[in-house]
Design brief:
With 179 residues, the protein is mainly alpha-helical. The protein is built from five helices and two strands; from the N terminus they run H-H-E-E-H-H-H. The radius of gyration is 20 Å and the shape is globular.
Length: 179
C-alpha cells in the first residue's frame, strides 16, 4: 500500500502534515501526535490534506488577487501570473517536466499554507486564553466553526477539482476533433 503513494501525496499531504504537527508541537502547547505510528501516519495525512486544500482554495486565490507596482512601468500587475490552462495542458503533454514543475509549485503553495495554519493555531492559542477570561467557555463555538469551515473548504475543493477534470476532458475532445 505504501509503495502506491504518489509523489504528489507525499509532498503535498504527508510532508506538510508532518511539518505542521511538529511545528504545532514545538511552537504551541498543543500535541497532535498519538505515539502510534499508524495513527500518526493518518494524522499527518489528514492534516496535510486539509492544509493542501487550504493552500489550493484559499491561499492560491489570495495570491492571485495581489497586485504589485512594476518598477519600470509603474503600473500595478499581478504578483502571480499563471499560464492559461489550455496552454499549460498542451505544453505539459509535450514536455512532461512541466507537470513536475507544477507539482513543485504546489508544494511551495502548500508550505505557505502550512506556515499560515501554524500561525493561526498560535494566534488561537494566545486569544483563547484571553477570550475565556472575557467570555467564558468558547471552545464549542470554535469546534462548530472548525467543522463549518471544513465543510466549505472541501466543497470548494471538490468544485475546483471537478472544473479541472472537465477542462481536461474538453481539451482532449478538442484535440480529438482536430484529428
Amino acid at each position: 500500500m505504501l509503495l502506491k503513494i504518489s509523489s504528489y501525496n507525499i509532498f503535498n499531504n504527508f510532508f506538510p502534515g508532518i511539518a505542521f504537527c511538529y511545528m504545532v508541537k514545538y511552537l504551541t502547547n498543543y500535541e497532535l501526535d498519538t505515539g502510534s505510528v499508524w495513527e500518526n501516519l493518518f494524522i499527518y495525512y489528514f492534516w496535510g490534506l486539509i492544509i493542501s486544500r487550504i493552500g489550493s482554495v484559499v491561499i492560491e486565490n489570495i495570491l492571485l488577487k495581489i497586485k504589485i507596482k512594476n518598477k519600470e512601468s509603474k503600473l500595478k500587475e499581478n504578483y502571480i501570473n499563471r499560464a492559461p490552462y489550455e496552454e499549460y495542458s498542451r505544453a505539459s503533454e509535450k514536455y512532461s517536466f512541466i507537470k513536475i514543475l507544477n507539482e513543485t509549485n504546489n508544494v511551495y503553495r502548500t508550505m505557505v499554507s502550512t506556515f499560515a495554519c501554524v500561525l493561526i493555531i498560535k494566534i488561537y492559542e494566545v486569544l483563547s486564553v484571553y477570550c475565556v477570561k472575557l467570555f467564558g467557555q468558547i471552545g464549542m463555538v470554535f469546534q462548530i466553526l472548525f467543522l463549518a469551515v471544513g465543510i466549505i473548504l472541501f466543497i470548494m475543493s471538490y468544485k475546483k477539482q471537478t472544473d479541472y477534470i472537465r477542462k481536461r476532458v474538453q481539451d482532449y475532445m478538442i484535440q480529438e476533433d482536430k484529428k
